[in-house]
Each structure stands twice: as structure tokens, then as C-alpha cells.
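explain this.
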Amino acid sequence: MNISTSMQRVMYAHLLAVSCAAVTFVFGNELWDFVVNGDKTFRFPLATLVLAWIMAFAASVLPYAGAMTLAVRRGIRSPYFFIGGAVLTAMAFLPLLACAYSPRHLVRLAPMLFIAGLAAGSACWLMLKSAHNEDTVPAI
């Protein structure tokens, strides 16, 4: 990651990561119900997606701020740092979600959180590593 990365790009990367994580988690759970549990309807509930986005945003603000501070101070550019951090952040909330769901949902929650973390970390890293120069973009 370039040290001169603008704060605007850092915030966009966070919003993109949260959006990717929420869509992946909700879509993955619906796909699980459709394929494994034999639900006859495949739905993508907007209310669930909005709630998942809000929860993912609230849960990731402090870890993301800490990780970005560490990345800038230490000059960390590795995709493993961003992807691993997102996966660890997502997996940290497994016990909380396990309390909200029944214990039998742990079989599905752990992989869904892992995949959501992978999607979030990858999206964040791709956004931050891009070589765009914000100073040359014309204002709208």
C-alpha cells in the first residue's frame, strides 16, 4: 500500500469490503438453505442484507482502523495482511453469532464467515493497491 493513499480511498476500501462481506454472507446462507436444507424457494432478502451490512460495518470499524494505522506506519502492503485480518475479524464474531443461532448452525456459520472475510479482505486489498492517482481525477 502506498503511504500517500488518500483517506477517501481508505474509506472507500472499507465500505467496499463491508459490502462484499455482507453480500457474501447473506447470499452464502441462502444458497446453503437452498442446496443443503432443500428449501424450494431461493430468496435474497433485502432486509437481511441491510442488517448484515450494518452489523459488519459496526463490527469492523475499530479493527479496520487499527489495521490501517499499522499498515501505514509499518509500510505493510501484503495481501496476506489485509485478507488475514478480515478473516480474523469475521471469525472473531463466530461465538456471538453462535449465541444468536442454534448450535447446529455452527457447521454453516464458520465457513460463511471465513468466505465473507476472504471476500472483504480481497476487495479491500485490491482497492488499496490500485495505482490510481486521486489528484488527476477531475472533480464532478
About this structure: The chain is about 75% helix and 0% strand. The helical segments are 7-35, 46-74, 79-92, 94-100, 106-129.
